[in-house]
Every structure is written in C-alpha cells, then in structure tokens.
Amino acid sequence: MNKKAFYTELHRDLSALITGEPDLIATFANASALLFERLEAVNWAGFYLLQGDVLVLGPFQGKIACTRIPVGRGVCGTAVKENRIQRIDDVHQFEGHIACDSASNAEIVLPVYQGNNIIAVLDIDSTVFGRFDSDDQHGLENIAALLSQHIS
Which InterPro entries does this one have (predicted)? Predict the structure, then answer.
C-alpha cells in the first residue's frame, strides 16, 4: 500500500474511532494507540497538552517520557513557539533537543488546535534517521486537522 492510501485509511479509521467521543483524553488516548500500532518504525506516539507556557505529558504509547516541556524548548516546545510543524530527520542535530529516549533519532511534531489556539502537540518519534518524509507530514497533518476539528 502506498503512503497516500495508508494515510487515507488511517484517517478513516481514526475518524470512526473518535466519532461521538466528547472527552479529549479518551480521544487522544485512542489516537496515540492507533498511530503507535499502525505506523512503522515508530518508538513513541503521543500528545503533550499546553498548560500556560508549558507542555504537559498527555496520553501516549511508548517508553516513559518527559513530563513537562517549556514552550520554546526541544522539538515540541519549538512547534508551539513557532506555531508550525517540526519535521526533524536527525534530532541529535536539533539545537536544544530534549532526549526523553536516547534511542530516538527522528521526530515529527504537529500542533493540535481548538479554534485558532494550540491546545496540544502530536509528537511521534522513530529510531530511524529521516523516518518522516513529506508524504508522512502531509498524512499526519490531516490526522492533526481531524483531531482539531473534533475538538472545536
């Protein structure tokens, strides 16, 4: 299956999974489980919830994670500060990277919105350098948009 078809199927399945669920934590918990189960070569998938100027660990799948990340620090905090997706081929080259799991080598972080405000980030890590390409970014952007629409 090509990536476009994969992400179309993933979007469909996530939509079915979260339809009718009003609780944010339940929605993010099932979304992180689905992403962790379906994405290849991923060692962490989950959410950090924005509380003031700090991202606080939310639902996730994978190893123990950093609990709090200040806005502007690391890949997740930079995504919030710059209000844009961060796709990093080699996290060891990212200035200020926070190594929650030293086995992670690539990362993609996507803002999740309620209206026009970031309320969380979707964070996905991989042990494979360069794991996330533009097709992954586009597919995951649609996943983050689905979550944002569901929340709003």
Answer: GAF, GAF-like_dom_sf, Phosphatase_reg/MetRdx
